[in-house]
Each structure stands twice: as structure tokens, then as C-alpha cells.
Amino acid sequence: MALDELKSAVPDYAKDLKLNLGSVIGNSDLPQQQLWGTVLACAIASRSPKVLRELEPEAKANLSAEAYSAAKSAAAVMAMNNVFYRTRHLLSDPEYGNLRAGLRMNVIGNPGVDKVDFELWSLAVSAINGCGMCLDSHEQVLRKAGVDRETIQEAVKIASVLQAVGATLDAEAALAE
């Protein structure tokens, strides 16, 4: 199992990450599509080749072709949106918020999977990318759709652990060079 290989690669000084990795993926209450879509989107967003290489095959095996594509789409479109909307928020001139974005993001309206799943994946990627505007927007859509806070927090926990594991493994690889 790739998850076990990833856990074994985590150094001893980051034992908490190893434990959390097993917990957020291995003991998740999320339905399989939500879980593995979140894992795949976050593995991509983590920008860690090791995390993506280890988790992608299992995600692909647990997702339909449509869900696999949609999770990758969530990571792609949020990589763009998170930079754009985070910048709008951080600029001191509020007039940027009145300008038309002019960016294509059709996949958000028609992701090819249940809208709630896509929104959850987008929220998790936004957590990794640190876009408060996107986090608020996706959280509000999810809450209006009846998704409970525990489910939303579960996705954020997956995002935080995968990001931390990726940063730790990539640092270890750089130090070993």
C-alpha cells in the first residue's frame, strides 16, 4: 500500500505527521469519493512529487474516471483562483474587487461530479494555497448544501497533513543531495 510507504518515509522527528497521515486517510469518515478526491487534489496542491507519486495510484483506484478528472480539475482551477483572489484581497485598493475577473473557470459550474464533492476538494486546495476569500466562499457553499462542519474540517485536516508531509519529505530530499 502506497500510504504505508509514504508513512515509512516520514522521518522520526516528524512522528506526529506519520500518525496523522494514517489517521486522516486510514480512519476517515468521509465517503470514498470525497476522501480520495480530497487526497488527490491536495497531493497535487502540495507540490510534492513524493506525496503525489505515492498517493495518486491509490486515489485513481478508488475514484471513477470522472471523479479522478474532477479532483485534478479542482487542484488546477484553484491554483489559479487562489492566487487571483488572494491577491485581490491583499491589495489595499478595494476597486480591484469591482473589476471583472475575466478568467475561465467553467469547471466550477460543471465539474462532472456532485457539486458538494468538487466544492470540498476546492476548499481543501484553498487551505493549502492560503486563500481566505476562496476558503470563505467554498465553506459557505458547502454549509448551504447541508455539509456539516466536521466534514469540512476533515478535508482541511487532510490538506494540512499532506502539505506538512510533502514539505518535510521535500526538505529531507534537499538535505540529502
CATH topology: AhpD-like
Task: Please outline the major beta sheet.
Answer: none
The CATH architecture can be named as Up-down Bundle
Quickly name the level 1 CATH class. Mainly Alpha
Which spans have pLDDT < 50 for at least 5 consecutive residues? Answer: none
Structural class of the secondary elements? mainly alpha
**Count of separate DSSP helical elements:** 9
Strand runs, count = 0
How would you sum up the global shape?
Answer: globular
Subunit structure: Homotrimer.
Enzyme class: oxidoreductase
Pfam family, one: CMD
GO biological process, one term: cell redox homeostasis
Question: Overview of this structure, please?
Answer:
With 177 residues, the chain is mostly helical. It has a single domain, classed as AhpD-like (Up-down Bundle). Helices cover 76% and strands 0% of the residues. GO terms for molecular function: disulfide oxidoreductase activity; hydroperoxide reductase activity; peroxiredoxin activity. It comes from Streptomyces auratus AGR0001.
Feature tags:
76% helix; AhpD; mainly alpha; peroxiredoxin activity; 0% strand; AhpD-like; 177 residues; disulfide bond; disulfide oxidoreductase activity
Summarize the structure.
Homotrimer. The protein is mostly helical and 177 residues long. It contains nine helices and no strands.
Task: Describe the secondary-structure layout.
Blueprint: H1 2-9, H2 15-26, H3 32-45, H4 49-62, H5 65-90, H6 106-109, H7 115-129, H8 132-144, H9 149-176
Helix pairs in contact: 1-2, 1-4, 2-9, 3-4, 3-5, 3-7, 3-9, 5-7, 7-8, 7-9
